[in-house]
Amino acid sequence: MQNKAVLFMMVIFLLATGTTALAHGGGEAPVDVKSLVKQSIAFIEGIEDMDMALAKLDEAIDANKKQQVADGELLQEAKQSLEAGNNEEAMLLMVEAIGGDPLVDLELAPSFQFNLANIILLIIAIISVFIGILLLRQKADVERGANNE
């Protein structure tokens, strides 16, 4: 019985992780300017990693040369402000460059979305934990029985 349960768990695990691994086809898609700017702001506000913030801002400036969706001059001003250590001004300029309202858009919130795949994987994870607990209890009961004999 225990071998069948372990085999079942292995099959479920392989199916769950295998489909996720195979789902990523092709290369990386280009990241849009707005996402790069928001990542730069997150590095400033979140972990205060100015090198990464500057790197993301440079990527945004380069991407904007191709996409032309943001105000390039404001992005350059934001870069100069960030290099000068004026983080607040840099963030305001970045938000304005992508057409946002600094009073509204500087409040970052997580954007995790529950879709069907995430819900299924969450359910599989919970079931796996419960099956693991049951298997450990069975193993402990068997070992206690063997020790008592």
UniProtKB/TrEMBL annotation:
Alphabetical UniProt keywords: Membrane, Signal, Transmembrane, Transmembrane helix
Superkingdom of origin: Bacteria
Bilayer-crossing regions: 116-136
Secretion signal, residue range per the UniProt entry: 1-23
Keyword Transmembrane helix found: yes
Protein name (database record): Uncharacterized protein
The organism of origin for this protein: Vulcanibacillus modesticaldus
